[in-house]
Amino acid sequence: MAPYLGDVLRMSPLKQIYLRVVSTRAYMSIMENAIEGVEARVLWSCKQRCVELLELGIREVSGFFRPFRYEVHIEGESSLFRSTSEHAARHYLTMLLGKGLGELEHPIN
Predict the structure, then answer these.
(1) Which domain holds residue 16?
(2) DSSP secondary structure letter of residue 80
(3) What ranges in 2-107 are assigned the alpha helix state H?
(4) Are the beta carbons of 65 and 41 closer than 8 angstroms?
(5) Which of 74, 73, 5 is nearest to 82 (CA)?
(6) Number of domain units in the chain
(7) Does 25 share its domain with 49?
(8) Which pLDDT does position 15 carry in this prediction?
(9) Which branch of life, at top level (predicted)?
(10) Which residue, 47, 72, 79, 82, has fewest beta-carbon neighbours within 10 Å?
């Protein structure tokens, strides 16, 4: 149970630092476990332009892959576009490349 604000104010500075470290470590542990479970699948790529569409998701215990985000990447760069919608990500790619995705390269299955 978290201490009340009044209790925190009466604690020694050392105790306050200790509680912050403990809560930060717990949060970091939760986040590390969440990040470890994330998988990325390449839905589409264009080798000529070094662009790819990634599907990020979590593999559930049942084995089912549950996507939660789609990202457009250029090789070696951070994501150009992020969305929870695959349609929006594909539309962004179409606008970025100026052609339909099917005209450039076949999708990766």
Answers:
(1) 5-35
(2) S
(3) 5-10, 13-36, 86-97, 101-104
(4) yes
(5) 73
(6) 2
(7) no
(8) 65
(9) Bacteria
(10) 47
What pLDDT, on a 0 to 100 scale, did the predictor assign at position 87? 92
Q: Are 58 and 15 members of one domain?
A: no
The encoded tokens of residue 77 equal: 């760069």
Residue 24: strand, helix, or coil: helix
Chunk the chain into consecutive blocks of 10 residues (it has 109) and report each block's average pLDDT, rounded to whole numbers. 52 65 58 66 83 88 87 85 93 83 52
Neighbours of 101 (CB within 10 A): 17
Q: Tell me, yes or no, whether 28 lies in a domain.
A: yes
Q: Which of 7, 8, 24 is nearest to 16 (CA)?
A: 8
Same domain, 45 and 93: yes
Whether residue 97 sits in one domain with residue 48: yes
Helix (H, G, I), strand (E, B) or coil at 55: strand
Task: Check whether residue 95 and residue 62 sit in a common domain.
Answer: yes
* Residue 74 phi, psi dihedral angles, 5° rounding: -105, 135
